[in-house]
Amino acid sequence: MLHTLTEDLASFLSEVTQDALGCPVPHSARDVGELCLHLIDQNIDVATAVAGEKVAYRQWAGSLDRASLDTSVDYYYGGAGLEVGYRRTAGLMENSFASVTDMSRLRRVKGFQEEVDIATLYEEQIRNTVIHTWDVAQALGFSYQPAPGVTQRILRTTVLRTPPSTVPDGTGAWPGGVDDASAFAAVLTLSSRGR
Prior knowledge:
Order of helices and strands: HHHHHHEEHHH
Number of helices: 9
Helix content: 55-70%
Radius of gyration: 17 Å
Largest sheet: 2 strands, antiparallel
Distance between the termini: 24 Å
Mean pLDDT: 81
Low-confidence stretches: none
């Protein structure tokens, strides 16, 4: 599931033009360029925490900072390469999760006050990816609705802290027939974002 969601986010990042780098991200102090750098750093931080050791990533990208983003974007065609950097670091993160044999292991990750188990961290990455996909889409003037069942899973696992395995079908779907659009509206509201 996480790979599909990171690809959704990468597809929006591929639409970023030089002008769009400076677009403000709704409900954030960041612009699109700053958010992209944050996403890349977050992927590296999570990959490192999950793997339990520093992951090699800079050999492909060199130094990434906000000023270098402005010069790397093709003014007319977009293709800032933001999606390339994002995909590479998302791949490192996904590979780190895939290599785990014990999802109950505790890890310390930036953004968490205490150690967190890898299963919870995986669910948080699903939530963060969906929220940041919405952020980028909104900044660029697009709409975004995650695949069916995703936001219901986010509500259950990150709001109620109930693992998907507690639902009979294992999807984490919200009980009681709440539709996906309503679930997504709730996720956005709980994430301090409005529609």
